[in-house]
Amino acid sequence: MEELLTFLQTHHHALLDGLGALLGFIYLWYEYHADARLWPVSMIMPAIDIYLYYKVGLYADFGMAIYYFCAAAYGWFAWSVRRGATKAQVLPITHLPKRVAAYSLGVFLPIWGALYYILSVWTNSTVPFLDSLANALSIIALWMLARKYVEQWLVWIVVDIILCGLYVYKGVPFHGVLYGAYVLIALVGFRKWRTMAVRA
Q: Is 102 in the same domain as 127?
């Protein structure tokens, strides 16, 4: 028992990294198929990530993990019930309206600026520019996912490329591999959702 406890204490970062990566692949499988079960999985992952990101100094990601949990609850509800409906209906996959895209850009820019300022001034982050950029984009992308907009995949591609590099740089290799795979799967996911949106 003592040997097991010692092993867990010594390798807990790697174990959490691996577990988070495994859940991430499960989440991505559900997202690819537009399956609402992605939301329960996305509520479990932040519990792991909150601890892991704080320990490795990715403070924006740490804060984002809290946001992800709350957004997952919203996404689960949004995918189950259409706003204004008299009965439960499945939210359809649609394309992002130009008006909503402009609004999203207007929200993204100040969020990015605020995160960059916080990381630069109030933390010892060594990657404030990219960390804040990836997380500001993630806020927008997760909301787009909750509303089932096809273009959410395009935003995630940018996020995944940035985070893949950051995690490798910060010594979280399993998450780096995970986000590298996300880039490839997001390309396929975008194509699949675009086809599904046409039929919706």
A: yes
Instruction: Give the three-state DSSP class for 149.
Output: strand
Q: How many domains does the chain have?
A: 2
pLDDT digit of tens for each residue in the chain (200 aa)? 444 334 334 445 666 767 777 887 788 788 878 888 888 888 888 777 777 777 777 776 777 788 888 888 888 878 775 544 444 456 889 999 999 999 999 999 999 999 999 989 988 888 899 989 998 999 999 899 989 999 999 999 999 999 999 888 878 787 788 789 889 989 999 999 999 886 54
127 shares a domain with 73: no
Find the domain containing 117 and state its range: 92-199
Indicate if 75 and 7 belong to the same structural domain.
yes
SS3 94: strand
Residues 103 and 173 in one domain: yes
pTM: 0.75
What residues contact residue 145 under an 8 Å CB cut-off, 6+ apart?
A: 31, 75, 152
Q: How far apart are CA 152 and CA 34, in angstroms?
A: 12
Give the span between the Cα atoms of 70 and 106, in whole angstroms. 22
Same domain, 82 and 96: no
